[in-house]
Amino acid sequence: MILDRLTTILVVMAVIVMTLLIIGISHSQGTPRVVGDLPPPQRSDIVFGAPDAMHKVDIFVSMTCPHCQRLARETLGKLVTRAKTSNELRVTIRQHPLNAVSLEAATFLGCMPDEVRHEAFTGLMQRPHLISAVTNWPKLAPAEHQAAIAVCMEKDAMRDSVVSNTLTYRKQYGIQVTPTIVVDGFTAPGFASPHELSEILGMPNE
After folding, report:
1. Beta strands of the chain (E only): which ranges?
2. Is residue 61 helix, strand or coil?
3. Where is the Thioredoxin-like fold domain (predicted)?
4. What are residue 48's DSSP bridge partners?
5. 51 contacts 92 by C-beta, under 8 angstroms
6. Nearest-5° Cα angle at 172, 108 to 153
7. What SS3 class is residue 54?
8. In the CATH scheme, what is the code of domain 32-201?
9. Closest-CA residue to 126 (of 58, 77, 83, 198)
10. DSSP one-letter code for 72
11. pTM over 0.85
12. At 138, phi and psi to the nearest 5?
C-alpha cells in the first residue's frame, strides 16, 4: 500500500511539474522578447525580399519539427509571396537544427544551389517522411546537381558551419526552440498565421 501511495504521489508530482513547464513555455513564447539585429544570412538560409525592406521577418526552423512543418505549409508561402511582390518585407528562413537528422537536412540545403534551395526546403517540409531518409539526400536534388551535393555533404565544412550558427543563435540571441519567429528584432509567437503576422507588422491583410 505504501508503495502504491508513493507511486501515486510521484505521478501527481510529475503531472504538476509538466503542467508548470508547459505554462512557463507558453508564457515565454507568447511574450515578445528583444533579440536585436541578427547576423547576415548563412549559406543554408533562404532569403526573399529586398535588403532594405521596411520589415524583416526571421524564422528559425528545425526540419524535423512538426510545428515548423505546419508553419511551412500554412504561413511561409504567403509571406514569401508578399516579400517577392513588395518592398515592404524581407523574409529569412534560418536553419536551427535540434537533432542529427535536422542537421543533415540543413547541411543538404546548404549544399544546394541558390536557385533550387527554397524548392527543396518546401518539398521536404511538405513530405516530412523524406527528411528521415538521410542517405538519400543527393537523390532528392535535381539530377544535374547530385554529384556536387554528394561531395559537399561528404565534407565537414558546411555541417560545421550550420552547427556554429546554431550555437551562436542559442548563446547570443537566446533562440532555444523552433519555430521561433523574429519580427523587426522582437520575438513573435512560436506559430503565427499570416493574419497574425500581418497584424504584428501593421500591414494590411490580403
Report:
1. 46-48, 55-61, 89-95, 180-183, 186-188
2. strand
3. 44-200
4. 91
5. no
6. 15
7. coil
8. 3.40.30.10
9. 77
10. I
11. no
12. -60, -35
Contact 201, 91 (CB under 8 A): no
Q: For the chain, which residues score pLDDT lower than 70?
A: 1-30, 130-138, 189-195, 197-206
Residue given cell 547576423 in the structure block: 39
State the amino acid at position 3 in one-letter form.
L
- CA 74 to chain CA centroid, Å, is 14
Cα of first residue to Cα of last residue in the chain, in angstroms, is 63
Question: How long a stretch of residues is the chain?
Answer: 206
Q: Is 95 exposed, middle or buried (0-12, 13-18, 19+ CB in 10 A)?
A: buried
Dist. CA 8–CA 12, nearest whole Å: 6
Query: Phi and psi of 123, rounded to 5°?
Result: -60, -40
